[in-house]
Specification:
alpha+beta, endopeptidase fold (from Nostoc punctiforme), 6 strands, elongated
């Protein structure tokens, strides 16, 4: 601003000058303090923004002790469909996370429930209403290694049909050859119910998004 009177500086130029001064002090800007926001100023601002962004990104998006999808699922036990023409807005919201145009709980929502719990907890999701879509998510787990919270996929009607059911593993009852599962759309509600182990298609252990993406960079 060497040859200009301060009174003639526009508000835009004043803001640019302040930003240039700040970037100069931080070591990002090497140009003139002229209030002209050109390529050099923009490049300096981009470098500063990147560094500031990285500085504030935590190493993990999850906090130790934060709830898992299974933890969240337990808080919804008892959530039920509303008889008649009315719909439970919470169930509809879970469905709309997958298909925005859905406006009725009459759509099968077991997969929507698992997706919603995984999404809220920061875990991977199938992103589909098809229960069998979960066979392609997470890591494969054998029944003898299953833990509470693992995702269980069952067949319905026939093993080779497209129909199925998905829910969270609670425990195995070897005396009755059954699986206790916590899931949605079980008796039109979120509940813990028993299913025959013969219907088992697979068990998957979900990974956090942090595990999939790797740790954030730090400076």
């Amino acid at each position: 601003m060497h040859c200009r009177e301060f009174s003639l500086i526009t508000m835009y130029e004043l803001k640019a000058l302040i930003a240039q001064t700040y970037l100069l002090e931080l070591g990002f800007y090497t140009g003139k303090l002229d209030g002209e926001w050109g390529p050099v100023s923009q490049a300096a601002a981009a470098k500063w923004d990147d560094k500031e962004l990285l500085k504030h990104i935590p190493k993990s998006t999850r906090v130790d002790g934060s709830p898992t999808p299974y933890d969240l699922a337990q808080t919804h036990i008892g959530t039920k469909e509303i008889p008649g023409k009315a719909d439970n807005p919470l169930i509809v919201r879970w469905l709309r996370m997958i298909v925005a145009s859905i406006n009725s709980e009459e759509t099968a929502w077991c997969s929507a429930f698992v997706n919603a719990m995984a999404r809220e907890a920061g875990y991977e999701q199938s992103g589909k209403l098809n229960a069998r879509s979960w066979l392609d998510v997470g890591t494969k787990v054998s029944l003898d290694k299953a833990k509470p919270g693992d995702v269980v996929i069952l067949w319905r009607v026939a093993r080779d049909s497209w129909e199925g059911h998905v829910a969270f593993f609670v425990k195995q009852d070897t005396t009755t050859a059954s699986l206790r599962l916590l899931g949605g759309n079980q008796g039109d509600s979120v509940s813990i119910s028993s299913y025959s182990a013969k219907q088992l298609l697979g068990i998957r252990r979900l990974r956090t998004l942090d595990m999939l993406q790797g740790p954030a960079r730090t400076v």
